[in-house]
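Why do we care about 3D structure at all? Because function follows from shape, and shape follows, mostly, from sequence. That is the central idea of this module. The next example makes it concrete: a single protein chain, its amino acid sequence, and then its structure expressed as C-alpha cells.
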Amino acid sequence: MLVEVFYGGHGTAEAAQRLRIPHGTAKSRLFYGLRKLRDSLPPLAA
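And the structure:
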C-alpha cells in the first residue's frame, strides 16, 4: 500500500482498485503502515 501511494503516485481509491481491495481497507492499511514505519524510525533530535 505504501509503495502504491508514495512511489506509484496513486491515491488511496486508485491503489485500492489496482490491488482489488475495498477503499476503506486501503486507507486502513496505509494508516497502520505509516504508523509502523514512523514507530520503527529513531526520534529526531530537537
